[in-house]
Amino acid sequence: xxxxxxxxxxxxxxxxxxxxxxxxxxxxxxxxxxxxxxxxxxxxxxxxxxxxxxxxxxxxxxxxxxxxxxxxxxxxxxxxxxxxxxxxxxxxxxxxxxxxxxxxxxxxxxxxxxxxxxxxxxxxxxxxxxxxxxxxxxxxxxxxxxxxxxxxxxxxxxxxxxxxxxxxxxxxxxxxxxxxxxxxxxxxxxxxxxxxxxxxxxxxxxxxxxxxxxxxxxxxxxxxxxxxxxxxxxxxxxxxxxxxxxxxxxxxxxxxxxxxxxxxxxxxxxxxxxxxxxxxxxxxxxxxxxxxxxxxxxxxxxxxxxxxxxxxxxxxxxxxxxxxxxxxxxxxxxxxxxxxxxxxxxxxxxxxxxxxxxxxxxxxxxxxxxxxxxxx
Length: 376
Prior knowledge:
26% of the residues lie in helices and 20% in strands. The chain is built from 11 helices and 15 strands.
């Protein structure tokens, strides 16, 4: 099973009945579908609620009303085609509009629709923007999945970034280690290339996307070890997903298994209110409780994740709650005046997003007169 067959049509999924395919056809017509042989082999097809199936196989609940295609207003931070600059020291470069599979909860599913034109075939405009902005020391390559690019094409982008002195960290956001680890295992040229540009002074980070412990197969672990041996720094991030990892035992197991193989948990995201994602959403305060219960099952090395939401105004960390209040701070902010701002809101058990809370009861902002030389 080393060479994977990618599947983009539901009628090619033999495990689905004809009735299921017909029922899911309207979902496939609205939102793109893609999976592969390897990932399908992880699904327990006898269980309709199987979490791996839920990640990649369409569901009629995706047609429920609500949400926006651009839930975090990424368009407002787009400074060149495919280049987003939201935080002072970090920019995001969209380098691909295809993934190894399409997560049903994807917050950028708009990129895979017929009318999408956000991802350029030529990223030179974005690279030029990065060259002109010397504050940018941290670049995230994303999409789509950068590791689906050919090794030569990906190297061209990384080589250009390494020619820019002020770019110190290159991050690659990828679910390929979960969707198709053979992409890494079977291409030694890929890991050699990444190792070449991940030197002593300027590292490459792989931001993996494992959502459930069952994705951490023998092949996935081998892929992550191969990357680490090449000198790539690895971490993991996942959204909190109803029916996938919203059980504290499952989430705690995911955190622990990642720590065991040297891939620290980095972020746990509140599911964004993207169109079609309602079926995965959990109230924010309940999510915080699940997060803390999961962390209680972990040692220090496994409990390093932060529970955050990627709001239009910045990355907000949920830091605590009482029976009456919830406590939130800006982990990163688009507006420099909001950096590290700490806010207290009246508890709202029905809130899913910052916009669902009433005005701030109390807040505190820290002056920051010193320039930060590290990544935000």
